[in-house]
Write a structure and sequence with these properties.
about 550 residues; Elongation Factor Tu (Ef-tu), domain 3; 11-stranded mixed β-sheet; 21 helices; Helicase HerA central domain-containing protein; HerA-like; P-loop_NTPase; HerA_central
């Protein structure tokens, strides 16, 4: 920017007050003086020139929004006719041609009308109707301006924290918009992701005490956070009937073979499973059933059907496939770790009770079900999650004739269940969660994904999330992946993802009017998940009782419970 241009900017502003003027007057003065000019215009963003002297003057301002004016991630405003155009500063570089000049790129966020008396912004909305022309002046956005921009438009919202850099503007998320188009919470380990997830879910539960939320918790962290407001289900009280599994899930649990043998085993299992299901009186009353129908059957009936089929073999056919399935079935029945699912007590028709329990229908003041799968044997964890997710989806499809009762399914460590193509293992859980991401909102299902490795998520799934809440991401691949999934106007905000503090995030998408950087509220101790990192030095300075502790652990280890 030329020296002449710098003089123009200062001349365009009202004359400053005397040195001893009050700070309020100085703030008004800074807000009214330009800090730069528009150099070039493009569809989604533009290039501007900033005056370094004016930026230094603004830095001393008591209004934190004006003090950060022109810096990366800050908001600036441009006058266009009767409107103010709001933009976010994406980057800065020195103007080599001019001494002390700064060139910056900006992303347009939206526009608002100007109040004639005060000059403030009102009726803010996303998108741009009219673009400024090169040479238009740029002004700092004050806290008063941002208050109008971030003010709720009347839709139901939850408040999760404070808008950065202000001290008093509350950050709200529109619940219907966030849940209606799915959401993702991303952040590296140690950034406060679990506490932030608990905060958002607590706020949703407070806003909707008769809600229906199902959360899959792979580490048992959230039981502590929702012990008063949620139903905690783990291997001791989940009592999940094995016969709710469809054929694909039965194959995952019961079949151990690969290649050509796999197809042989699948054909045998399909035939025997259908026969076992058909023995139930329910099957007789329904007439026609399939191998996927959730009809109760006895494990002993399945075992008998396999033995009968094996007895019909002629001498040339091998009995190995039948023995493989039979042996695996016996193993599941006798192993105490699988009792929560393969117990002989779970053969009664408890499907309606089970669904009412996990979907919180009615909620009875506990709108969230925490499904703690940390005690589930690792080889069937993904199948258990698949069954729970599929029940949500199938229930929503078959409940279309009823009054819609939307269900929120929250999946922690989502990259384990919906992995990217290179990590995909063809499991049913990846298929069903991908399907919910693509089709769920038609049936009133919302999906919430929480992960520390977004780059390991299936590509299509993250792009289906309408609202993205991103905390600090340390890995460059993850940062690039999230940027690709974000809307164009938020890219400037995303450059600050590596620089976020703990318990700070960037929210963009459907759930907010414009992208915002938020400092999360503090959550009460009793509502926090059990995810605190241990203090090594503190714990390694305590001793006593180690022998007894080891004995107890070994006993639990052997007893598997």
């Amino acid at each position: 920017m030329t020296d002449m241009g710098n003089q123009d900017i200062r001349a365009a502003a009202p004359a400053g007050e005397a040195q001893g003027a009050r700070s309020a007057a100085r703030a008004a003065d800074n807000a009214a003086k330009p800090i730069g000019v528009v150099l070039e215009i493009a569809g989604s963003g533009s290039q501007i020139a900033l005056d370094l002297q004016r930026l230094n003057e603004c830095m001393k301002d008591e209004d934190p929004s004006i003090a950060l004016a022109g810096q990366v991630g800050s908001q600036i405003k441009i006058k266009v006719g009767d409107s103010w155009l709001l933009a976010s500063v994406r980057n800065q570089r020195q103007d080599r041609r001019q001494n002390g000049g700064i060139i910056a790129n900006i992303d347009f966020l939206g526009e608002g009308q100007e109040e004639k008396l005060t000059g403030r912004i009102h009726s803010f909305k996303r998108g741009v109707t009219r673009y400024p022309v090169p040479g238009a002046y740029i002004y700092p956005a004050s806290t008063a301006d941002l208050k109008m921009v971030y003010a709720s438009d009347g839709r139901s919202n939850i408040q999760i924290g404070t808008v950065y850099p202000t001290k008093d503007i509350r950050a709200g998320i529109y619940v219907d918009a966030m849940l209606g188009k799915h959401f993702a919470l991303l952040g590296s380990t140690g950034t406060g992701k679990s506490t932030s997830a608990a905060l958002i879910l607590h706020r949703i539960c407070e806003a909707a005490p008769a809600g229906h939320i199902v959360m899959v918790d792979p580490h048992g962290e959230y039981s502590a956070a929702f012990k008063n407001t949620g139903m905690i289900l783990d291997v001791s009280n989940l009592q999940m009937p094995y016969w709710l599994m469809n054929f694909q899930e039965h194959c995952e649990v019961l079949l151990t073979s690969n290649g050509d043998d796999r197809q042989v085993d699948e054909d045998i299992l399909a035939k025997c499973l259908l026969r076992a299901r058909s023995k139930n009186r329910l099957a007789e009353s329904l007439g026609k059933i399939t191998v996927d129908s959730p009809i109760p059957y006895l494990l002993s009936d399945l075992s008998t059907a396999i033995a009968d089929e094996m007895g019909k073999l002629d001498k040339a056919t091998s009995s190995a496939p039948y023995m493989r399935i039979k042996n695996k079935l016996e193993e599941l029945k006798s192993d105490p770790r699988y009792q929560f699912m393969f117990s002989g007590m779970l053969v009664g028709d408890t499907m309606a009770d089970f669904i009412a329990k996990i979907f919180r229908m009615p909620s009875d003041g506990k709108p969230i079900a925490i499904i703690d799968v940390s005690g589930v044997p690792s080889d069937i964890t993904s199948t258990v999650v698949a069954v729970l997710s599929r029940l949500v989806f199938d229930y929503a499809i078959w409940a279309r004739e009823e009054r819609t009762r939307p269900i929120l399914l929250v999946c922690e460590e989502a990259h384990r269940y919906v992995p990217s193509e290179k990590n995909a293992d063809g499991s049913s859980v990846g298929d069903i969660l991908s399907r919910i991401a693509k089709e769920g909102r038609k049936y009133g299902i919302s999906l919430g994904l929480i992960t520390q490795r977004p780059s390991d998520l299936a590509e299509g799934v993250l792009s289906q999330c309408g609202t993205i809440i991103s905390m600090r991401l340390n890995n460059e691949r993850d940062q690039a992946f999230v940027k690709a999934a974000m809307p164009e106007g938020a890219r400037g905000f995303l450059d600050s993802i590596p620089a976020l503090r703990n318990r700070e995030c960037i929210v963009c998408g459907e759930g907010v009017a414009i992208p915002i950087r938020v400092s999360f509220d503090n959550l009460e101790e009793s509502k926090r998940p059990a995810s605190e990192d241990p203090s090594f030095v503190e714990l390694w300075n305590q001793s006593g009782g180690e022998e007894d502790s080891v004995q107890r652990v070994v006993h639990r280890w052997r007893a598997q419970g």
